[in-house]
Amino acid sequence: MAERLIHVGIRQFREDMAQYLDSATAVAITRNKRTVGYYIPAGGRIDDKELQALKRAVEQLATVLAEHGISEDEVVSAFRARRAHSQGTCAGCQHA
Fold first, then answer.
1. pLDDT digits (tens, 9 = 90+) for 25-73
2. Domains of the chain, earliest start first
3. How far is the C-alpha of 74 from the C-alpha of 61, rounded, in Å?
4. Based on the number of CB atoms within 10 Å of its own CB, is 44 exposed (0-12), middle (13-18) or buried (19 or more)?
5. Burial tier of 28 (Cβ tally within 10 Å: 0-12, 13-18, 19+)
6. Are 27 and 1 contacting, i.e. CB atoms less than 8 angstroms apart?
7. Torsion from C-alpha of 24, 25, 26, 31, nearest 10 degrees
8. pLDDT band at residue 81, thresholds of 50, 70 and 90?
């Protein structure tokens, strides 16, 4: 996998998803010019250079979480709540 990263809007990512799934390029997905997620292709065999890049990414994520006092459990809980909300299955919410 290349070490480059491209930035695309969430709508563009959704519209061109098949293209990104076939690509070896990592994608930062943005909404209103803010990164909201990443797509990291997992296809193929991981070489040493790629493995080191992934390890650095994990270390960077751990650092950001620690700097903000966020636990892994809190990230998982927030993800689940956001997913439930987007699916209209969250408790206590009224969806249009």
1. 899 999 998 999 899 888 666 778 878 988 999 999 999 999 999 998 9
2. 1-44 (3.40.1620), 45-89 (no CATH)
3. 14
4. exposed
5. middle
6. no
7. -130
8. confident
